[in-house]
Write a structure and sequence with these properties.
Strand content: under 5%
Distance between the termini: 166 Å
Number of strands: 2
Radius of gyration: 59 Å
Helix content: over 70%
Number of helices: 12
Shape: rod-shaped
Strand order of the largest sheet: 1-2
Oligomer: single chain
Largest sheet: 2 strands, antiparallel
């Protein structure tokens, strides 16, 4: 009994000794941490938490918390992640297409900006010094020219035979003096109407002439046009009275009648001839109007010269005089009064 109890106690002693030996061997194998390192670990602040990194199938290396511990984490790519990564790499490797592709117009404008000095940043500046003119309503001019054409059409339709005799007398000087003179003189009313139409046509022509040549700016057309018409009628009325008086004074009424007939004949044809030029001067572009203005002046000078030639041939039958005297008469009584009146009119309108 004693022996059995002794063996049991010996076994407990041996078993407890083996447990203590195993605990001592485990403590000796773990690394020892010094008190300095324990104090440093307590004082070091905790590292901030980092945001999770998207798993792209690549190796993620965490930063070292200290010099003693290095941690490396390798993520194992999954099949789905491998396909997604390949698609992402393919998109990254594709060339980027620009949003705005350069066209031929862009190339042209770039070359123009490089060559043209006015498109450079330091381009010269030019200022427009022309005064802006106020807008003028010229609708009344349409009605005026239309009224002139309507008046001519009414006269022609009402006196068609007179018109035919008038142009026959103009184109055939010899026949007009013998036969057509009496026929035209026997129609006083159409004769008066065409003389009045000549005054209207020439007055409107003078206004358009000054308008195209920019002689008038602030003049009121409703006062100027009637004034020019009355001026033309007054000039030729005074001339008619002076010729009648001279024929009575010198006893040459036939000569005065012949000259007055030629004068009125040329004036009537001139009034009719100016109608198409009135339309062109009123409504065409300045370049076209200026060209036809010179053409109209040429026809006016041509008809005045034709009047003097016919007058010289008629007067030669009644009087004997030299050509020098006839030229002096033209300069003194035909050309000089017209030039003086033109000068006075321009000074009154323009002040220059």
């Amino acid at each position: 009994m004693l022996v059995r109890n002794g063996l049991f106690l010996l076994w407990l002693f041996i078993f407890s000794s083996l447990g203590l030996y195993a605990q001592d061997s485990t403590n000796n194998s773990a690394p020892k941490v010094s008190s300095v390192q324990q104090d440093t670990a307590k004082r070091r602040p905790a590292a901030p938490k980092k945001k999770p990194v998207a798993d792209t199938g690549r190796v993620a290396v965490k930063p070292r918390p200290d010099n003693n511990a290095v941690t490396t984490t390798a993520a194992v790519p999954k099949p789905a992640d491998t396909a997604k990564t390949a698609a992402t790499d393919t998109l990254l490797q594709q060339p980027k297409v620009p949003l705005h592709q350069e066209t031929a117009y862009d190339i042209f404008m770039r070359n123009l900006a490089a060559k043209n000095m006015y498109l450079h940043p330091g381009k010269p500046r030019y200022f427009d010094l022309n005064v802006v003119r106020p807008y003028k309503d010229l609708d009344w001019l349409v009605y005026l020219i239309g009224g002139v054409i309507l008046l001519l059409g009414v006269i022609r339709l009402a006196y068609l035979k007179y018109f035919s005799d008038l142009f026959r007398a103009f184109l055939n000087p010899t026949l007009s003096q013998r036969q057509l003179k009496d026929q035209l003189s026997q129609s006083p009313f159409p004769n008066f109407l065409l003389n009045a139409f000549f005054s209207v046509s020439l007055g409107v022509y003078l206004y358009l002439l000054m308008y195209r040549q920019q002689y008038i700016f602030n003049a009121d057309a409703w006062l100027l046009i009637p004034g020019l018409i009355l001026l033309v009628a007054l000039i030729y009325g005074i001339k008619h009275v002076v010729l009648r008086f001279c024929g009575w004074l010198f006893g040459n009424n036939d000569l005065a009648d012949a000259y007055i007939f030629i004068l009125n004949l040329i004036n009537k044809v001139l009034g009719i001839l100016l109608v198409p030029f009135l339309v062109i001067l009123a409504f065409c572009q300045p370049e076209i109007a200026r060209a036809f203005l010179y053409i109209s002046l040429f026809f006016i000078v041509l008809l005045i010269g034709y009047r003097y030639v016919r007058s010289y041939s008629v007067i030669k039958q009644y009087l004997s005089f030299s050509r020098l005297h006839f030229f002096l008469y033209l300069c003194a009584f035909e050309v000089a009064p017209v030039l003086l009146l033109t000068k006075v009119l321009l000074i009154w309108l323009t002040g220059n």
